[in-house]
What does this fold into?
Amino acid sequence: MIGKLNHVGVATPSIETSVALYRDLLGVTAIGTPFDLPAQGVKVCFVDLPNAQIELIEPLGEDSPIHGFLARNPKGGQHHVCFEVEDIIAARDSLRAKGATILGTGEPRIGAHGTPIIFVHPKDMGGMLVELMEPVKETH
Ligand code: CO
It folds into this structure.
């Protein structure tokens, strides 16, 4: 069972241009600092909304997986949605047992929040690329 919507991933040819839209057009003030995720070939910037985040994703390097998306959608657009799960391994195994395809090796990798993530193939999700992530564990 999935938990909260964590973020909507939005591919963009320019984080700077997209940040300006959220800031100037939509009035968002809580916008993070862009950072590189070289292992995933992307530059990322989070826009904080009261109930979720927008993850702006810009290609980083020649082999970025975002190039293909931007070739089909030159202005950018919605790329994936990310739901939180309590246990990423349990979620993966449950999905596989029900016949869904996990992208890549299926081994979780560390995502933009520094926690384990996997992606479910869009063909199994009505055409929508779905990221599952373990949320940052609260430490008190
Ligand atoms: Co994401």
